[in-house]
Amino acid sequence: MSLLLPVNTMSEPELGAPAEGRIISGNPQFRTWNAEETSDGLYAGIWEATEGKWHVAYDEWEFFQLISGVSVVTEEGKEPVTLRAGDSFIIRPGFKGTWEVIETTRKTYVIKL
């Protein structure tokens, strides 16, 4: 096993969508290429979503960087934040709000449960 692991979209993605009851508008669809998953709850890969808006609630810690697209993330009680390619953020456990994809968005991510 190599200790150098590529993170790419050459394999078949896992398909998904927001959980039932979370969609606010549109018909957002997800594609995820999970490149790393460890027994201690570390995940890394690439995630993509199509246009739409949904409620989010994070129990995990996540670092991400947008590769392409435009999204607006709004934390409950805070001003909306527009994300564009190249932007990087950390979302901490307990974050609640909305994620709205304006233009199909692709991001790299590292999640720690």
UniProtKB/TrEMBL annotation:
<dbReference type="InterPro" id="IPR014710">
    <property type="entry name" value="RmlC-like_jellyroll"/>
</dbReference>
<dbReference type="InterPro" id="IPR011051">
    <property type="entry name" value="RmlC_Cupin_sf"/>
</dbReference>
<protein>
    <recommendedName>
        <fullName>(S)-ureidoglycine aminohydrolase cupin domain-containing protein</fullName>
    </recommendedName>
</protein>
<dbReference type="InterPro" id="IPR008579">
    <property type="entry name" value="UGlyAH_Cupin_dom"/>
</dbReference>
<dbReference type="Pfam" id="PF05899">
    <property type="entry name" value="Cupin_3"/>
</dbReference>
<feature type="domain" description="(S)-ureidoglycine aminohydrolase cupin">
    <location>
        <begin position="39"/>
        <end position="109"/>
    </location>
</feature>
